[in-house]
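It is worth pausing here to work through a concrete case rather than discussing structure prediction in the abstract. The textbook approach is simple: state the sequence, then state the predicted structure, then interpret. We follow exactly that order.
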Amino acid sequence: MKTSYKIAVWALVAVAGSALLGGSFWWWLVGIAAGKFIIRLLFTIALAIVIYCLVYACIIGGILWILIG
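Step two, the predicted structure:
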């Protein structure tokens, strides 16, 4: 999706939310930006934890394979 379409969709969501809940348009834009940042941060942390566990599982598995073999 092109960047201009993404911006248009997010702006439409912000205006719709503002109209439904009576909030300020700018607060909705700030909320959307902060929400996107927090979601990306959580996904990044989750990916880092998964990679960390996989690396240590491979290390421990390799050591056990050498010891058993």
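Step three, interpretation. The first helix runs from residue 3 to 21. The radius of gyration is 22 Å.
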